[in-house]
C-alpha cells in the first residue's frame, strides 16, 4: 500500500472554454496494480488520460513521474518515462502494415533506415502478447475492428511500458479477445506494470481491477481498493447530481395515441429495434455515447438506409426514404453537432430560421421579405433569441444557436421532433429554457424524441426512456421507475454484473 | 544477426508486395495500352524508340510523383506547373554561365527544395489550406520564372541535351533512380510517418510520429521533383521557357488520381501515380498514332479519368454489400 506510484496526478484542474472539466483531481498509479477509472460520459476521464500522457496541460496542479513533479509534462517526457496509451478512438494508419503501425513513432533504426529485422521481431513479440497471429505484412485496412483494437494495444506494449493506460480497450472486442486481454493484463501486473483501465463494462472492471477511482462531473467521488465495493455502489458514485429546479413541473398528457410505430428496425448499426412514439410525450433515448442513438434518429428521419418489419408514420405505412419525405410526414431533426450539421454559421440568424421554409416553398417562387421578417421576429420572440436577427449565427452562444436550430422547424408545424443531444455544451440557464420549451411543445400535442448523454435530463424531462446498448434497445423504463441509477445500470449492463457476482 | 536480417528483409518485401495489390489493375491497363502502342509503332522496341518514349514520359512521371507526395500528406498542389517552369528557366540561365552544369543543377535542386519547404512550412505551421497556399505559390513562382527569363531563351549545353534527350534511354535510368531514392526514403522513420501524418495527424502525433517534419519534408521533396522535371524539359528543348510547365499542374493531378491516390491523405502509393502517368503518356501517344485530332485527346483523357476513378466505386460497392 505504501509503494511509490510511477505516475500520479496531484490536485489537477482543467478548464475548457470556461467550463471546469476537472477539479482538484488526484490519482496515483502504482506498479503491479490494475487501477480502474470509472465515470459517466463527460465526467472527465479522457481529459485526465490526456493530462497523464502529456497530451494536455493542466491549468493547475501537476503530474508526478517517479517522484518528480512536472508543471507541464510533454508527450515526449511521458513516453520517455514509459507511459503508453492505447487510445479508444482508433488511431491506426490503414494503408501501412500491421508491423509498421505497431512500431510507428518508435521505429528501431539502423543507418537512419527503419530496421525491419528488429521491427519484425519486436512487433511479433507484442502481437503475440495480445494473441494476434495475423501476417505482420498485411495492411491494417484488412483487419476487422476488434483486431485493430488489439493492434492498438500491441502498439502500446511495443514500447515496453511501465505505465499502460487503456481507454475502453474492450469496447469493440469479442468475448474471446477480451479474455485474452484479461490474461495479458494479469501477467503484466505480476511483472510490476502500472495499469490504468477505463471501461464501461462494470462486471469486467470488478473482476479485473484492484483499485478504483470514480469521477463525477470532474470531481473524484471515490478513490479506494476495489475490495468490498459492489456494482450498485459504483453506479451510485457515478450519478446523482443536484438537479435543482432546472426541470419544469408537468402532468403527463392523457391523450397519447401512437404517431409513429416501427417494429424490427435494423441497419448496419441497429439491431431489431421496436419503437412507438406517442403524441404529447417526451420520449427519451439513453445509453453510453455511440451505441446507435444517432443512427436510430437518422433512420427514423430517412437520412440513413434501414429496414423494418413494419412501420407506420402518422397512419402511412413504411419508413421515410428521404429527408424530404420525412419532412412531409411532419418529422424534424435537430442534430447534435449544430455547428456542422444544424446551422449555416456565416449566415444571418433570420436566414437560418427561414431555411426549412425555403425548402417547402415552390422552387422558383419569389421570396416575401416582409412576411419572412415578421415570422423570424415571431420565432425569435417565442424562443427568446435576443438581439438583431441580421447578425451571423456564429456570434450567438452555444445555447442560443441551439434555439435557432430548433426554432427553424416550428413554422412547418412538425408533429415529431427528433432531437440529438440538444443541450450538449449549453449553459445552465439556456438548458432551463430549452427544457421548458420542450415540455410546452409536448403539451401542444407534438411528440418529442430526445436522445441525450445527460442522464438527469432523461430522468426529469421524459415520460419514458429507452436505453440503447450496441445497437439494441436493452431497457424500456416507464416514468414511475425512472432514475439515474436505473438508466446507468442498464446502459452499462450492471444487471448482468450483479447476476454474475 | 543474419536470422534477424533475413526476417527483416522478408517483412520488408512482403509489405511491398501487399502494396502492389491496388496498383495491379491499373498496371494491367497501362501494359495493354503499351502493347497496343508497340503494335502500332514497332520502333518502340528498339533502343532509340524506347529512349524517345521514356523521354516523353519522364517529366510527367516526375510531376505525378511530386503531386502524389503532397496528396498523401493530405493536401494538393497547384504550384507544380510553375515550379517546373522555374526549374527550366534556372537551368537555362545558369548552366551556360559561370556556375556550369553541376552548379546549375545544384541550384535547380536547392531552389526546388527551398520553395517546397517554404510552402510546406506555411501549410503545416500556420494551418492554412494547401490548395490556397499552393495557388498563391503558383502565382509567385510563375512570376519569378518570368522575371528570370521574360521570353523563351537561355541555353542548355548541347552535350547535356544529348545525354538526357538523345538516343540512349538515360531518362528511363533516371526514373529508376528516382524510384529507388523514394523507396529508401519510405524506409526511413520520417518517410513512413508521412502516411500516418496524412491519414490521421492527431493519432500519429499521439503515437510519437514526427508529423510536422514529415509533412514539411513532403512539400520539399515535391518541390525538388518539380524543378528537376523542369531541368529535364529544358534539356529536351535546349532552352528555357517561362511558361512551359503550365499544363503539368492538372496533368499531375490527373495521373495521381488515375493511380488511386486519394484526396483525403494517406491513401495511395507512388507506384500508382507512376502507373497513372504511364497510362496518360501512352494514351496520348496512341491517340496521336491513330490520328485523333488534338482536341479529341482532351475529351478522351477526361473520359478515361472519370471512368477510372468511378470504376472502383462500383466494384467496391458490390464487394462491400
Identify the notable features of this structure and list them briefly.
heterodimer, A: 501 residues, alpha/beta, Rossmann fold, 2 domains, 6-stranded mixed sheet, 22 strands, elongated, disordered C terminus, B: 321 residues, mainly alpha, 14 helices, globular
Which helices and strands appear, and what pairs or packs with what?
The complex is a heterodimer of chains A (501) and B (321).
Chain A (H helix, E strand, L loop, with lengths): L6 E10 L2 E11 L3 E7 L5 H8 L7 E6 L2 E3 L4 H6 L2 E4 L11 H6 L5 E2 L2 E2 L1 H14 L15 H14 L4 E5 L7 H16 L3 E5 L3 H7 L2 E6 L2 E7 L5 H8 L19 E8 L7 E6 L3 E5 L6 H8 L9 E4 L2 E2 L5 H6 L2 E4 L3 H5 L6 H12 L8 H14 L15 H10 L8 E5 L7 H16 L3 E5 L3 H7 L2 E6 L2 E7 L5 H9 L1 H7 L1
Parallel strand pairs in A: 3-10, 3-11, 6-9, 9-10, 15-20, 15-21, 18-19, 19-20
Antiparallel strand pairs in A: 1-2, 1-4, 4-5, 7-8, 11-12, 13-14, 13-16, 16-17, 21-22
Helix pairs in contact in A: 4-5, 12-13
Chain B lengths: L1 H19 L3 H17 L6 H26 L7 H15 L5 H27 L3 H19 L9 H8 L4 H17 L2 H11 L1 H6 L4 H27 L8 H13 L11 H20 L4 H27 L1
Helix pairs in contact in B: 2-13, 3-8, 3-11, 3-12, 3-13, 4-5, 4-6, 4-11, 4-12, 5-6, 5-11, 7-11, 9-11, 12-13
| Average pLDDT figure of chain A | 85
Number of strands of chain A: 22
**What's the total number of strands of chain B?**
0
> Major β-sheet of chain A, in short?
6 strands, mixed
**Biggest sheet, spatial arrangement of strands of chain A:** 6-9-10-3-11-12
Amino acid at each position: 500500500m505504501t509503494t511509490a506510484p510511477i505516475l500520479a496526478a496531484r490536485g489537477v484542474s482543467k478548464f475548457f472554454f470556461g467550463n471546469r472539466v476537472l477539479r482538484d483531481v488526484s490519482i496515483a498509479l502504482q506498479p503491479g496494480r490494475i487501477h480502474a477509472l470509472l465515470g459517466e460520459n463527460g465526467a472527465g476521464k479522457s481529459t485526465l488520460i490526456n493530462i497523464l500522457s502529456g497530451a494536455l496541460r493542466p491549468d493547475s496542479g501537476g503530474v508526478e513521474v517517479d517522484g518528480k513533479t512536472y508543471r507541464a509534462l510533454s508527450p515526449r517526457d511521458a513516453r520517455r518515462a514509459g507511459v503508453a496509451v492505447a487510445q479508444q478512438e482508433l488511431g491506426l494508419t490503414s494503408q501501412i502494415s500491421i508491423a509498421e503501425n505497431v512500431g510507428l513513432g518508435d521505429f528501431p533504426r539502423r543507418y537512419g533506415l527503419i530496421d525491419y529485422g528488429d521491427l519484425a521481431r519486436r512487433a511479433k513479440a507484442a502481437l503475440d502478447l495480445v494473441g494476434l497471429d495475423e501476417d505482420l505484412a498485411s495492411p491494417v485496412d484488412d483487419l476487422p475492428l476488434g483486431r485493430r483494437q488489439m493492434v492498438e494495444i500491441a502498439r502500446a506494449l511495443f514500447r515496453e511500458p511501465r505505465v499502460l493506460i487503456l481507454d475502453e480497450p474492450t469496447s469493440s472486442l469479442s468475448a474471446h479477445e477480451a479474455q485474452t486481454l484479461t490474461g495479458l493484463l494479469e501477467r503484466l501486473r505480476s511483472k510490476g506494470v502500472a495499469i490504468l483501465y477505463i471501461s464501461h463494462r462494470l462486471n469486467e472492471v470488478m473482476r479485473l481491477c484492484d483499485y478504483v477511482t470514480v469521477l463525477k462531473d470532474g470531481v473524484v467521488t471515490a478513490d479506494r481498493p476495489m475490495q468490498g465495493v459492489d456494482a450498485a455502489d459504483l453506479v451510485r458514485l457515478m450519478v446523482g447530481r443536484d438537479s435543482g429546479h432546472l426541470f419544469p413541473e408537468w402532468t403527463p398528457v392523457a391523450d397519447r395515441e401512437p404517431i409513429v410505430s416501427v417494429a424490427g428496425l435494423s441497419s448496419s448499426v441497429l439491431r431489431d429495434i421496436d419503437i412507438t412514439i406517442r403524441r404529447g410525450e417526451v420520449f427519451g433515448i439513453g445509453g453510453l455515447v455511440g451505441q446507435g442513438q444517432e443512427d436510430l434518429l437518422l433512420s427514423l428521419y430517412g437520412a440513413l438506409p434501414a429496414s423494418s418489419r413494419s412501420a407506420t408514420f402518422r397512419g402511412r405505412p413504411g419508413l421515410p426514404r428521404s429527408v424530404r419525405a420525412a419532412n412531409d410526414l411532419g418529422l424534424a431533426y435537430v442534430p447534435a453537432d449544430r455547428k456542422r450539421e444544424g446551422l449555416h454559421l456565416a449566415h444571418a440568424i433570420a436566414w437560418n430560421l427561414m431555411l426549412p421554409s425555403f425548402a417547402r416553398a415552390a422552387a422558383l417562387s419569389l421570396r416575401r421579405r416582409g412576411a419572412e421578417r415578421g415570422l423570424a421576429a415571431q420565432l425569435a420572440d417565442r424562443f427568446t433569441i435576443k438581439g438583431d436577427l441580421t447578425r451571423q449565427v456564429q456570434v450567438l452562444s452555444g445555447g442560443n444557436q441551439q434555439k435557432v436550430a430548433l426554432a427553424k422547424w416550428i413554422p412547418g408545424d412538425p408533429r415529431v421532433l427528433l432531437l440529438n443531444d440538444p443541450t450538449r455544451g449549453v449553459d445552465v440557464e439556456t438548458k432551463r429554457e430549452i427544457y421548458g420549451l420542450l415540455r410546452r411543445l409536448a403539451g401542444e400535442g407534438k411528440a418529442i424524441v430526445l436522445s441525450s448523454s445527460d442522464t438527469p435530463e432523461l430522468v426529469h424531462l421524459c415520460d419514458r426512456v429507452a436505453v440503447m446498448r450496441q445497437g439494441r434497445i436493452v431497457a424500456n423504463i416507464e416514468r414511475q421507475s425512472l432514475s439515474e441509477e436505473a438508466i446507468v445500470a442498464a446502459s452499462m449492463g450492471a444487471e448482468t454484473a450483479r447476476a454474475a457476482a | 544477426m543474419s536470422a534477424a536480417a533475413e526476417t527483416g528483409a522478408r517483412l520488408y518485401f512482403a509489405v511491398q508486395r501487399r502494396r502492389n495489390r491496388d496498383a495491379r489493375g491499373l498496371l494491367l491497363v497501362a501494359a495493354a495500352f503499351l502493347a497496343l502502342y508497340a503494335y502500332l509503332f514497332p520502333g518502340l522496341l528498339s533502343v532509340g524508340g524506347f529512349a524517345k518514349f521514356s523521354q516523353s514520359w519522364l517529366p510527367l512521371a516526375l510531376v505525378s510523383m511530386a503531386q502524389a507526395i503532397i496528396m498523401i500528406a493530405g493536401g494538393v498542389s497547384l504550384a507544380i506547373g510553375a515550379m517546373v517552369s522555374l526549374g527550366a528557366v534556372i537551368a537555362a540561365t545558369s548552366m551556360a554561365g559561370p556556375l556550369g552544369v553541376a552548379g546549375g543543377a545544384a541550384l535547380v535542386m536547392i531552389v526546388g527544395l527551398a520553395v517546397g519547404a517554404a510552402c510546406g512550412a506555411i501549410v503545416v505551421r500556420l494551418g492554412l489550406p494547401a490548395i490556397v497556399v499552393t495557388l498563391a505559390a503558383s502565382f509567385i513562382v510563375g512570376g519569378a520564372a518570368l522575371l528570370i527569363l521574360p521570353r523563351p531563351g537561355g541555353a542548355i549545353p548541347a552535350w547535356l541535351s544529348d545525354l538526357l534527350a538523345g538516343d540512349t534511354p538515360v531518362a528511363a535510368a533516371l526514373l529508376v533512380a528516382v524510384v529507388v531514392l523514394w523507396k529508401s526514403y519510405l524506409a526511413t522513420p520520417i518517410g513512413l510517418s508521412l502516411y500516418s501524418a496524412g491519414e490521421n495527424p492527431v493519432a500519429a502525433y499521439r503515437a510519437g510520429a514526427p508529423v510536422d517534419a514529415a509533412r514539411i519534408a513532403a512539400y520539399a521533396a515535391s518541390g525538388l521533383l518539380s524543378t528537376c522535371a523542369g531541368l529535364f524539359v529544358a534539356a529536351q528543348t535546349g532552352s528555357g521557357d517561362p511558361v512551359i510547365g503550365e499544363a503539368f499542374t492538372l496533368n499531375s493531378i490527373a495521373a495521381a488520381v488515375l493511380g488511386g491516390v486519394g484526396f483525403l491523405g494517406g491513401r495511395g502509393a507512388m507506384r500508382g501515380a507512376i502507373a497513372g502517368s504511364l497510362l496518360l503518356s501512352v494514351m496520348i501517344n496512341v491517340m496521336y498514332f491513330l490520328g485523333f485530332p488534338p482536341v479529341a485527346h482532351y475529351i478522351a483523357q477526361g473520359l478515361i479519368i472519370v471512368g477510372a476513378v468511378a470504376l472502383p466505386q462500383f466494384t467496391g460497392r458490390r464487394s462491400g454489400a
